[in-house]
Amino acid sequence: MQLDEQMKCWNHAAVKVLDIRRIVMEAGAQLSSYTLPANGFIYTIRGSAVLQLDGQTYKAERFYMLHGAKGSSLDIQTNEDFEYILLYYRAFLAFPSYRKKWLLAQPEVAPFSLQYGFAPSSPLGLLRYLDELEGAWIQSGSLDLLHTKSLFYQFIHEMMVQLAEQEIKTELADPVKQTLRYIQNHYREQVTLDFLAEQFNYSSRHLSMQFKRQTGYSPIDYLIQTRIAKARNLLLRSDATLSEIAAEVGYSDVYYFSRIFKKHVGISPIQYQRKIREEARAEDRPLVISESSIGRRWKSGYIDYENHYQYIDGGSTPMKRRKTSSSMIMVALLSITMLLAACSSGTATTPAAGEGTGASSNNSSTAVSSDTGSQTNKDNETRTVSTVKGDVVVPANPKRVVVLYLQGDVVALGIKPIATSEVFNGAAYKSELEGVNSLGTWFEPNPEAVIDLDPDLIIVPSEETYTLLKDIAPTVYIPYEKMTTEERLQSIASIFGKEQEAETLINNLNSKVEESKQTLADAGILDKTVSIVEGGLKGMVVVESKQYGRGSQALYEYLGMKAPEGIQKKIDVVSEAGGSNLSMEVLPEYIGDYVFRSVYEGADNLTDNPIWSSIPAIKEGRLIEIDFDFFYYSDIYSINKQLDFVVEKLLAAPRAQ
Length: 657
Prior knowledge:
- The protein contains 22 helices and 23 strands.
- By secondary structure, it is α/β, with parallel strands linked by helices.
- The longest helix has 25 residues, at 142-166.
């Protein structure tokens, strides 16, 4: 970035000083891989040291200025006593019109994330401002903090003058290198694309596009590959349990780890461990493994859902890629086209397709206002729907629908989308989506892939995905986590003008529920207690809410069956997903007359466990195993199938006395 551009940015910036401190390092001391928590200046006072910022080396003598971006990795090696001032700040372009103009002109540049180092021509002038800044910062009064901000602007002015005099070259910190380094060091922790973008002061979209351009992978794909590589080494070099390995590489849920491992490696962790060890014994040689975090293009990770306690992780399915410039042009053309279409509709108050007016509906728990409903403009074949993001103009008869996570309700309404987020193999509606494009995990769709599909309607389940895709085509955000199954279906139906079909589906479901309850009552089962568990030898999660999944909606919400008293008290008051992780020793106290256990490939075999086998429901054959994939979803299509399964299995089990 040219200096005059930097100066313009500072002139339009709002700033906040976050911290200023004076640090002394003794001779021989080291600082390794310190991540800057914010943009910052380092100004040496005395002594000398070798500084590395994101791998770039600087020889810092007395009075040397270094600027680093948020997320940069700092290393310091001293040979003598070394003293420096560290100043952290946050800055952003304050005026929306200038910020928009800047981003349109230079979308890939973060104006305050530059990296540079130089020896000032007038070092004492900078030191004077920094000393005054430190003094005002220590006082911490309201007036002193205001003075701090004033001094900071004076400091920036003096520094820019000296940069201009010396014609110092500045360069943008490489977000890809920063991200690679961060993932390698923090893969055990909770890492999301939004977190990485925030960490390095970039937009999620820009970081993802830059990362894919340089590596061929999305940041989350790379994170998964890193974790899988670490897990492989642990499987081969240790006797750690699957749960311990899952936790070590960043997954709190062993089932999710097992599924994602199989998705990428092709076989389950246990099968992989057995296979490689048998091969090693057959070759009569020591077991040696050397893995790179990137070996080949992996398949995408599984979808996850907040109502299920496992850690969210995943990536995007690789698809045909275009150059970023052409993709951005396509987005712009589509946005202009939709704007013109909306303007030609003859109403000055109708927003551009895909954009909200900012006016929320009266009921924040529904995506389509029950008061306003859907209004069809027959002349232009559009429909205006009122959403939590404002009014959105959608096609009256969309032909190319992209839907993330909510595909079960869309399928139930008789609509086959052209693309969806990934679906578990055991999902009730899996066969209905045969041949439909997969966009990877629902929380990180690939915008370029969506553009290539040329959709005329997009349905998303989160604010993040709405922001990511809303400029591509008319986009409707459904806040599904705040809705019942029926509310969600009605909202989606209103987008397509299929309110009558939704009403029929709901009536049919209610009829099935009543018939099922009567059948179970006649068999003497409806008044018996049921428990839902998931886990293995080291402990079990006992479901304690209707919203948890794993059959909780079918059993506790629709059929109205009760859990043992201790669990039922929690079910009666908990409105969100909830469950308790219990040891095997106390588990029998929480098991009802019938027990449903969520199972998956690689789940522990409990047959020989004496505590498990002694539980009356297990011993007397009233254990019903349910497939995780099949009971994961809560759409109306899946609930119907789950009810059929539950009733059939309860009737087939031995009767509880």
